[in-house]
Design a protein that fits this description.
seven-stranded mixed beta sheet, DNA polymerase, domain 1, alpha/beta, 3 domains, 7 strands, Rossmann fold
Amino acid sequence: MPDSQFCFVVCQDYFVYKKLYDFGLLCFNLFREFVSVDRGLFCYCNLVYNFICMTIKNHGKSAIVSSSSNNINGSEMSHVPVLLEEILQSFDLPDKSLILDCTFGSGGHSRAILGRTNFNVVAIDRDSSVNVFANALFNDFGNRFKFMHGNFSQLVGILRSLNINNVNGILLDLGISSMQLDSSNRGFSFLSDAPLDMRMNVDDTITAYDIVNATSETDLANLLYSYSDEYRSKAIAKRIVEERNVSPIKTTGHLARIVRKIYPSGKHSIDPATKTFMAIRMAVNRELDELYSALDSCLDILCVGGVLSIISFHSTEDRIVKRFMREHSGYNNRVKKNKYDNGDKNQITYDLSIAINKPLVPSSAEIARNPRARSAKLRIATRN
């Protein structure tokens, strides 16, 4: 299936009446986001979605290349930046500050920072497919924007290669981007049947197929539980091993069906396969290892008074971020903070100060506009 941005462009070009266009978008979003809705509504949304895809097939991508390019160069992108206003407010920094966007994606946050402030931005992403969005920002903002392909765990080396020693602000928007999730051929989503891949960097060697078909039952159960808090991890791992002993599990659809059979029938707040897919994706891309490395590196390159803003979407990632900020701010030792051993030079100092004790979360209005923002949490700290 084509990605969501492409579908939107086709709707704009071929659905002449705006009401029909709006209705098509509504059904598309319902199909993408709410798999567990009433079966009749789901089937109807699926029908409309297939109609959109058929329109694409009939007219061909070449007929709308120019329209697609205009859409990419504009502010409308398939990825809606989460907690955007809160991010912009967190970067209360001097003029012409340098911001490091460690998770560029399709550039929503970077574009807003460049467009609404006079800051400069260096962006990093491991996914080479985002180059088209990076080129668009460079065309719009020139030398105020630089993009580097790489993992954010390597952020110190990347900045050194640009002769940059410090930055004023750092943004990490953790997890998978909507652009990746909507690219059905990359195997991130269970909404379409695609090869089990899930690599954010297509040059990496390990795929989801390798994890699913080669990991032992015990290690697979531990992976599902530790990465995604999947409480049925043992049963799911056992069923996966049973299925792969019959024949290899090759597609996202096959894996999703296996997981769904473990759960009782009926309505669920999220698709039963959600946590399994998330855990396997995190293992394929070593996301927690990347996060640990990046957090330590942030202390090395964030200047005094600089701001560290981190958006997480899952409790595992959020716990890591929360513990890191508390450890380096003295939060856990706050009773002893500012105490003196001998009354003079032994005051305890810390690397960070927590800007807000509780994370910021999306408003109900933002969730209504962008349902994928519903689990986002933003934690902010400043460098001492």
